[in-house]
Amino acid sequence: MRAETVYIGWDVGGWEGKHDGLAVLHWCGASGLQVLGSPVRMSLQEALVGKTLCVGRLLAACGSNVSWERAVIGIDAPLGWPREFVQHVVRPPAGEQAYLPSGPGEINNHLAYRLCDRVVHEWCGKKPMSASFDRLGNNATKAIAGVQLLGENDGALLSPQQGMISRVVATEAYPALWKDGAKKEGQPIEVAAGALSGCELPEPGSDECDAVLAALSAACYDDLTQRHDRGLPVLCLPWDYLGSEQAHLGDEALIADEGWSGRRMDLFPACNCHLGRGR
Questions:
Q1: Sign of the CA dihedral 241, 10, 144, 125?
Q2: Contact 227, 16 (CB under 8 A)
Q3: Which of 199, 218, 219, 277 is the most buried (most CB within 10 A)?
Q4: How far is it, in rounded angstroms, from Cα 152 to Cα 47?
């Protein structure tokens, strides 16, 4: 079987245990998005430690030994750290004050939250976990190591830090925002269920289901960057935020440092987005 582009979803678990969810989708013309193989829950520890993590291994784990030309991988974990946190850890140059939170509210602590996290909190009413302060850091370190191996073994680019378009792209996904109430156990919302109407979804709240939603994010990302116009849900990508009224001077460089997770456009103020579409 041949699939020109495969969309892989990786719901990243911690370093220990079998908590990695994997799923693969591809586009079947009039039939829309279809699952390749079967979504699975497993451990990628061996592939990471052995430095053998690659697109082929992810496909094989789902029983999807297909011929492919491109791969877009949606990863459910932060793929970057708050800039101020990195600078704080390596310590500021002599004579410079280390970062101190200046605004009220936990979300405004730039040691804990990235720009894209603060945007989600302001526009979607949800506060993401902190990659640097919360247990999510366990998953983030694993995901970032995985992306590095995908780069070494398959030439994968991390989006947006390293580029937006390549034969293999790794992009940050946020499955919680595809669910009713954005809860772990929530049912996939109508917009997600519609896009996946040809798929038999795993149990809501499972790692396998989150992996399918991460793969959906990868397909939506590809729809925009490749201009496929297949009617998939629209994501808010960095240029949309940077063209909005909420953007500030220096945010583009901040996104390049910290990364960005594509979120559903319908969660964002309609009047302020689309300004950068088509870039």
A1: positive
A2: no
A3: 218
A4: 13
Euclidean distance between the first and final Cα of the chain, in Å?
34
Q: Are 4 and 66 contacting, i.e. CB atoms less than 8 angstroms apart?
A: no
SS3 helix, strand, coil % of the chain, rounded to 5?
Answer: 40, 20, 45
Model confidence pLDDT, tens digit, residues 127-137: 899 999 998 89
Averaged pLDDT, 214-242? 93
* pLDDT at residue 272 tops 50: no
Q: And the tokens for 15? A: 């370093």
Report d(CA 153, CA 261) in Å as an integer.
23
Asked if omega into 160 is within 30° of 0 (cis), the reply is: yes
d(CA 185, CA 208): 12
Q: What pLDDT is recorded for position 273?
A: 46
Range 2-102+134-234: architecture per CATH? 2-Layer Sandwich (3.30)
- In this structure, the number of other CB atoms found within 10 A of the CB of residue 267 comes to 16
Segment 39-55, tens digit of pLDDT: 999 999 999 999 999 99
DSSP 135: T
Nearest Cα to Cα of residue 170 among 36, 46, 63, 261: 261
Question: Which of 171-195 are b and which e, b meaning 16 or more Cβ less than 10 Å from the residue's Cβ?
Answer: bbbbbbbbbeebeeeebbbeebeeb
pLDDT digits (tens, 9 = 90+) for 112-166: 999 999 998 988 888 899 999 998 899 999 999 999 999 999 999 999 999 888 9
